[in-house]
Design a protein that fits this description.
The chain contains 16 helices and 13 strands. The protein is of the alpha/beta class. A seven-stranded parallel sheet has the order 3-2-1-4-5-6-7, sandwiched between helices. The N and C termini lie close together (11 Å).
Length: 354
């Protein structure tokens, strides 16, 4: 069975990383499945053993080459049995529309709380309401995302299912054992809080920097793509710039997470939050926000904190060795629910049900 996953790029996001891990595991362990990535253009942060096909050249804009884009995509997708929109909105719309034209099966992926992602953009809400019901399955990465999609867009519940993102626990732990580069080792001379995300306002980095003002014996390590300059100026205004370290996007963030005191990500919204679970796999407590499901209704798996005061209080709580060890063990136990072999089997069942 040939499966195409449509994505704009393979840039450094959790959804892209998750789909690579899932696809590679399936083709290695289920030889009857062949999975390819279909990218708008050749922009990649991640390497993969899967075949990658580009719709346009790297310097071509989709908006100025629509006819070529659609014509090329049509020719590519004729060769597949199932077309997956690897992200919500445009990739999912393309998977559904072309599956109907070509008489194929389609799966739409939902990684975010779309009311937060879309906001008041009526056009996207309208397209979601019209198109999503025509997908064979809508796969949501958390129960909270699933409930929202069903409620907002009236999707039949039997075609809107929750499958968590897979976590390749063994791979993460192997990579975490790599040594940290000498130039970064001094960062960990103090207890270090780790923030990993694209540098977008809603991810909450400014709140973590503000919290650092009240956590005098801590360093903050920041990883992710984006413009750090405004955050540096923000840290400078708070006189904490000497304790904030930005090292950009890293293909292997795990060795830094492993040496951190806690992972902190007070995001305004997340559909899943891959990095939380990657930290759990390494026994590192998590502090942040996004969806309650990640932390448990009563903070069973991590400490839910969104405001500056909540972040400061959460770190103070973790300074108690007994509580710290509780969250270390709770994360290690919780992560077993996300093992990649278990999640891959759930996807295989969906592929066969299409």
């Amino acid at each position: 069975m040939k499966i195409a996953i449509i994505l704009p790029t393979l840039q450094g996001g959790g959804a892209e990383k998750s789909l690579i891990n899932l696809g590679e595991f399936i083709v290695k362990n289920y030889p009857e499945f062949d999975i390819d990535f279909i990218l708008y253009k050749d922009i990649r942060d991640y390497d993969t053993i899967l075949d990658v096909i580009f719709i346009l050249n790297k310097n071509e804009k989709v908006s100025k080459n629509l006819l070529k884009f659609f014509n090329r995509l049509y020719k590519i997708l004729k060769n597949y049995d199932i077309i997956i929109g690897g992200l919500e909105l445009e990739p999912s719309y393309l998977s559904i529309i072309f599956s109907k034209i070509l008489k194929k099966k389609s799966i739409s992926m939902h990684h975010n709380l779309e009311n937060k992602l879309i906001g008041n953009k009526f056009f996207y809400h309208f397209l979601n309401f019209i198109l999503l019901r025509f997908a064979n399955f809508n796969i949501c990465v958390s129960n909270e995302v699933r409930e929202l999609i069903i409620k907002l867009y009236k999707i039949p519940s039997n075609r809107c299912i929750c499958i968590y993102n897979p976590i390749d626990i063994e791979k993460i732990r192997i990579l975490a054992n790599e040594p940290i580069e000498e130039i970064y080792r001094s960062i960990f001379s103090e207890k270090t809080l780790c923030f990993i995300a694209r540098l977008q306002e809603y991810k909450g980095l400014k709140k973590v920097i503000s919290a650092l003002k009240h956590l005098e014996n801590y360093h903050l390590l920041v990883m992710g793509k984006g413009n750090f300059e405004s955050y540096y100026e923000y840290a400078k205004n708070l006189n904490v710039e000497n304790r904030v370290f930005y090292i950009g996007f890293k293909k292997n963030p795990y060795k830094y997470i492993k040496n951190s005191f806690a992972l902190v990500l007070p995001s305004e919204f997340e559909g899943f939050g891959m990095v939380f679970y990657e930290a759990m796999a390494l026994g590192i407590p998590i502090v942040g926000s996004g969806i309650r499901e990640t932390f448990g209704n009563n903070n069973e798996y991590g400490i839910y904190a969104n405001s500056v005061n909540e972040i400061v209080n959460a770190i103070r709580i973790l300074e108690n060795d007994e509580i710290y060890n509780y969250y270390k063990q709770a994360g290690l136990k919780r992560i077993e629910d996300f093992k990649i072999d278990k999640i891959a089997k759930e996807y295989i069942d969906v592929f066969k049900a299409c």
